[in-house]
Amino acid sequence: MNTFNKLAIPCAVFVLGSLWLKPATAEEIAQVCWLTDKGTLLRFSVTQTAPTHFTYTGIFDEGDGDSAQYAISGAVEIVSGGGLVGNFSGSKSTGSDFKTAIARVTIDPVTFAGSVELIRQKYNRQTMATTMDFRTNTLTRTNCP
Fold first, then answer.
1. Rounded to whole angstroms, how far apart are CA atoms 53 and 73?
2. How would you label 85-104 residue by residue, b for 16+ Cβ within 10 Å and e otherwise?
3. Which of 31, 65, 70, 90 has the smallest number of Cβ neighbours within 10 A?
4. DSSP letter string over 109-123?
5. Which fold has domain 25-142?
6. What does the DSSP assignment read for 17-60?
């Protein structure tokens, strides 16, 4: 067997195998925004990754007056009965503090209204104290800015 044949067969197997194993690409399907009853904005870029599964990334403006926003990511699933249930987590950092948040989101698939339960942890850089709080908010679909 000549050198070309010795290399051609393994190369062909590798190329065909990598094409077969190549994951399907997911595409952004929408940008979606909600306002909470406290006036904060959630903005997501939604990607469909399976027939009933969606991932998203985005921003969460806490409305606290500082210029930093939470960078967030999460996933949502269409559950039996047609509702949307998901979660997200995120963090933000300013000169005075560092905050993390985790949340559970429930969305009505017809009205796109919903609710969010959020646990937020805040580290104050000056006092080196950590505090935590729990919040619930309603979500109203709005146009993205």
1. 14
2. ebebebebeeeebebbbebe
3. 65
4. TTT--EEEEEEEEEE
5. Lipocalin (2.40.128)
6. HHHHHPPPPP-EEEEEEEEETTS-EEEEEEEEEETTEEEEEEEE
Percent of the chain with pLDDT over 70: 79
pLDDT tens for 87-140 read 999 999 988 999 999 999 998 878 888 999 999 999 999 999 999 999 999 999
- Take residue 53 and report the two structure tokens written for it: 């599964």
Q: Which residue has the tokens 């909600």?
A: 34
**CA 34 to each of CA 4, 25, 83, 110, 145: distance values in angstroms, whole numbers, following the listed order:** 60, 27, 17, 14, 11
| Boundaries of every domain in the chain | 25-142
What is the pLDDT confidence band of residue 38, given thresholds at 50, 70 and 90? confident
* Plot region of 76 (φ>0 → left; ψ -120 to 50 → alpha; else → beta): beta
Comparing 61 with 139, which gets the higher pLDDT? 139
Q: How far apart are CA 106 and CA 108, in angstroms?
A: 7
